[in-house]
Amino acid sequence: WADPQFFSAATNNGPQPWCSESNRDPSFPFLPPSPLRLLSSQSLMTSVARFLFSSSAASIRPTALYASRLRSGAACVVPSTARFFSSSPRRPPSRRLEVVRRPLQTFSSRFTTSALAIMASDLATQLEKLSIGKLESFPGCYPDVNPVDIYRSHITSLLHDVTGVDKPIIYNALQWTQSLDKGDLVLAVPGLRIKGKKPAELSEEWLAKFPESPLIEKPVSFQNGTFLQFWFKPGPLAKVLLSQVGQRGKDFGKNPNNGLRNVEDPSQGKKKIIVEFSSPNIAKPFHAGHLRSTIIGGFIANLYDGAGWDVTRINYLGDWGKQYGLLALGFDRFGSEEALAADPINHLYEVYVKINAAMSEEKEQIDAKEKAGEDVTALKDNSLDEQARKYFKAMVAGDEKAVAQWKRFRDLSIVRYKETYARLNIHFDEYSGESQVSEADMEASAKRLEETNISEKSEGAVIIDFTKHVPGKAGKSLERPIIRKKDGTALYLTRDISELLHREKKYNFDHMIYVVASQQDLHLKQLFKIIELMGYPETAKKCQHINFGMVLGMSTRKGTVKFLDDILRDVGEKMHEVMKKNETKYAQVENPEATADVLGISSVMVQDMSGKRINNYTFNMEAMTSFEGDTGPYLQYAHARLCSIFRKAGVPDEEIATADLSLLQEKHAIELIRILSQYPDVVQNTLKTLEPTTVLTYLFRMTHVVSSSYDQLRIVGSERELMKARLALYMAARTVLYNGMRLLGLSPVERWVTATGDTTPAQRLLATSATRRCHAIRAREFDRRGAVQQRNILRSRGRRRIGSTGVLEDPGHRRQTRQMTRANGTRVAMRQPLSAD
């Protein structure tokens, strides 16, 4: 890595602005400032630096550094468009270093894919090496960002020659598979719309004519010729995949073409999308519903961001209404400035609970007196409920004191919310709210509703009777919502109508998504239909409601709601306790409390995203923090273990870049290569469903393949060239896992701590998965083979010893003993090299 201080000292100009802390990216402060995130080895950097600074009189103005990937596979640092000029008399200004380079790509993981980046080559070079001509272009085909699209285009051309079917029809009929045993791509023969012959006859005819290909094996028919399976040849796929992963790095899996208004003319800009999510009520802590909206909404925003859209994240706060008048009254009675400064949200919530309890008690007393025949007019006029209504009316009228108090509560709440959002890797571009909807906008909306005869008066209130505007059951299901109360007060729906139309004018969006619980299904249907009836059908079509189910089991024993901060604290403390049991590894973690917090948050988020959005799920602390099954801790462990491989291997990146990928011929290597190639398709498919579980399920499938590969694809102890090839493959797996976790909003950890004597999460997973019996058999076989191998070693040395586990041991040839749970609950000893961790 380049040292900014070295550059600063070499120029003799003192500290440079591009070396300052303010220029560091806060999301990855461990990297040098942006112009110096270089994808090259330290030795190469030193050589280039010595060349650039060979003259002590040279005065160099560093601007944007660029990286050039040369044919030799090395990365060289050069200035962009010759912006390194010399002011020395010995070097006239006309002499300059001129090289045209592509911008440097950076990665937000400490363990970068620099070796793969050096190895990378452009698409044209890859195709030339594979003896593939220019690829056909199809809508939605982007081979420069999705390696499988190379194969789709290639197969389409071959099938066109064989079948005579139009290429677009063939291309769209090729589908990716979720199960590797069904091939890499599959084609439904009936989907080609050929009449007169049965699928079996067509399949047989095509297979006989299908030519040899450098990319794919001969296709296979199944289900009586209804489908054709296509299997990629592992060698070419490995080269294409790893090169693209290295070239794109943290952007692998993203497709910025999706968000362009015109792919052929990028100058027309990106499509705009608004994602409204989270939306808590101010002065109240987060609860489960807000948590789900926050996690799902953050994921959707990340997804569209990666797809190249111009994303605006809006937090539409519940910050207006009579309840805030009641809160102000409660603060006057129960509030404390000291408590407010220390913990604003929780204190305001305590105040709100107390004033609500007082109001309920007061109401019971008034009702009792009214039933007894007493005159309660004066009591009602001076009740807390009436005082809250008057206070809110003053807020609406702009009373300075009332508005100032409300604004203080709002600002304190937002500050605290931002702290929670930061822990969840969430940020917003705009904090809006009901209070921000102007009276002028609401008056304009009300006037429009009257002019179009959509609204009508009913018993003093203004309503919309959908049965008069929407025929049949659809109209009845939308009911008769109130948009203004008798006293003229606007309701939530009234403000939402005006806010939606305001956003259309302000952002001119192409799409807007509301991430709101399924309890609001009717409300959002009413909103979209009203916008349509008002004469804005195109605006209504651009709006979408993404709903989700409830979280059960989130209450305490007393029946009160358990809030997010309490949940995160509890799971973080539990993970911290697990970490502290292993003192040695615990000491190696730089910030164990922060790591435990990340693990706890991952536990909560992964459990939330494990099922489909619309499904309810039960909050289960034991299950989410368990190492058994597909949990957040297991996913974090999988990433940390991949990181540990490179720490322990100690192979320089430039050496990994020279790996011979044709050596990756083992079954486990081929399976891992194939599943890694699916990641861009998984992300693309998720854009259609907006289901976080699609990406999460893929990551667990991929990590299972990685975990099952460690025994077969060992690093330490393998031949050097094979080791480099395997490291390149594991590097690609780590990049895909990192990118997927970041897409989900998780913060991948680089070190893992397990309790002493405990099984590792991977081993527990194997022991509890659906393939438990298979892995138990495999463990016994592995143990038997390890014992035989150990016995042979000891016999050759003339000494034998039986260890406490019943397996032969050799003190002079230490090997790590691990425990694994069999299906019947007993323990078996496993023999593995230390490198397996």
UniProtKB/TrEMBL annotation:
CDD domains: Anticodon_Ia_Arg, ArgRS_core. Residues 803-837 are annotated as: Disordered. SUPFAM superfamilies: Anticodon-binding domain of a subclass of class I aminoacyl-tRNA synthetases, Arginyl-tRNA synthetase (ArgRS), N-terminal 'additional' domain, Nucleotidylyl transferase. It comes from the Eukaryota. It catalyses: tRNA(Arg) + L-arginine + ATP = L-arginyl-tRNA(Arg) + AMP + diphosphate. Keywords: Aminoacyl-tRNA synthetase, ATP-binding, Ligase, Nucleotide-binding, Protein biosynthesis. This is arginine--tRNA ligase.
